[in-house]
Amino acid sequence: MPVYFVRPYRSTDKPHIEHANALIRQYLPKHSSFADLTAKEVKEIEWSLNNRPRKELGYRTPHEFFYLNLQSKCCAS
What residues does each domain of the chain span? Predict the structure, then answer.
């Protein structure tokens, strides 16, 4: 499996992570405290993000895309 290391403080090296951070910031603004965040709230944010259609996935959700690819890899005999 290839492994990639990004340079510190270079957001251009990791555009997908930066996009994910921007989506998370819609729920948790910068400088907000995570101390009062419950596990249920984290799960709700996680569910919302994993069930949001993405243009780069052909307007499928990350959840759909993951399971379609998993199914094609493990059940393609």
Answer: 11-74
